[in-house]
Amino acid sequence: MLPPPHGGRLIDRVLSEPERTRRESEVASLPRLHPSEDELFDLEKIAVGAYSPLTGFMDSRELESVVGRGRLPNDLPWSMPILLTPRSREDRETAGRLGAGESVALLDGAERMVGLLSFRERFTLDRTRIARSIFGTVDPAHPNVADLLAGGETAIAGTVELVRPLQLAARDLEMGPREVREEFARRGWSSVAAYQCRNPPHTAHEYLQRITLERPDVDGLFVHPVVGRLKSGDYRPEVILAAYQALLSAYYPPDRVLLASLSIAMRYAGPKAALFLAIVRKNFGCGLYIVGRDQAGVGAYYPPFAAHAIFDEFDIGVVPLRYGETFHCRRCGGMASPKTCAHPAEDRVATSQTRIRQALRDGSPLPPEIIRPEVARVLSGPSVLLP
Ligand SMILES: [Zn+2]
Hints:
With 387 residues, the protein is an alpha/beta fold. It has helices spanning 17-25, 37-48, 60-69, 89-96, 127-135, 143-150, 177-186, 203-213, 237-251, 271-283, 306-313, 353-362, 373-379; strands at residues 32-33, 56-57, 103-107, 113-124, 154-162, 192-197, 220-225, 257-259, 288-291, 319-322, 327-329, 334-336, 348-349. The protein folds into two domains: 17-162, Sulfate adenylyltransferase (Roll); 171-379, 3-Layer(aba) Sandwich (Rossmann fold). The chain contains 13 helices and 13 strands. The chain has a five-stranded mixed sheet with strand order 1-3-4-5-2. A five-stranded parallel sheet has the order 8-7-6-9-10, with helices on both faces. A three-stranded antiparallel sheet has the order 12-11-13, covered by helices on one side. Helix 9 links the parallel strand 7 and strand 8 (257-259). Helix 5 (127-135) packs antiparallel against helix 6.
């Protein structure tokens, strides 16, 4: 049995075709807001149920509960604020005039109506307190803290509906939780492990995927890279997906692995991000979740195993598969870890992303101990990193 969605019910706030046409014809008469790219990603994910049980952007009570104790007001664990914070002067003025229950059109950068918000509350954010609680730092060098501090100071809460899907770079591989659950069922999978990633796969990633696929309690692996807005210096979304497609088609049995993209802004919040990303995958039907070393970390803000420990503090109804450091060992002749290899450091090859980037920069060959040649070929193309 696949796990039930978080909170028990998969949220569906996507408008039907006739309803969509009707609401689109009203757009000229509605107040209009222009959410940021990140907020539009969140809008779509709320509407398709990826963020179940959320039905809209958080109000002050929900936010306070999440910031203060890592739970929604009904006690369900939830670790990430999901906020709508108007930022242009025009949008802030529009937001300032909204009355309770009023419908607001949410437009994308091309002025197309993407969603509707039923306005509930306007409130001021304590951004320093949010940064400290969620990201564990107020350092503006942290990418999400920088976003938070640069964003609006006033948040707008209310339930949302999706009028039309976003135009995404990775639309072909983007699937909603309903579609993914159906695909799992079609494949006869009842126990699925989710693999969170935001980088092209190297041999240590592959090793964790393989040892997970060897578990007798796992029917299949759901590889679900976050390819929404990443940060400068990260790989481009299409590169990450092409690299995974190269690995999957060359090495894995096709009936044991499913690849889909997750277009949301990456939260580099270490433990709280790991918990959030696991809750999202539970909504997609995954009962097991792979947590590597320093998952969703950035810089040195989080202890490498904090993302493991948070699953002891919060039971989200998902089995965390906690893995530590792995490496290629020349003496063992393959991937190994301190649990399986007795050899000294000089026999071990670290398979870090830093090392791969260094080799790419220097134009030196990428050794097969750290990356598959099929994946290396994808990475040796032009401009693979975000500026
Ligand atoms: Zn060894």
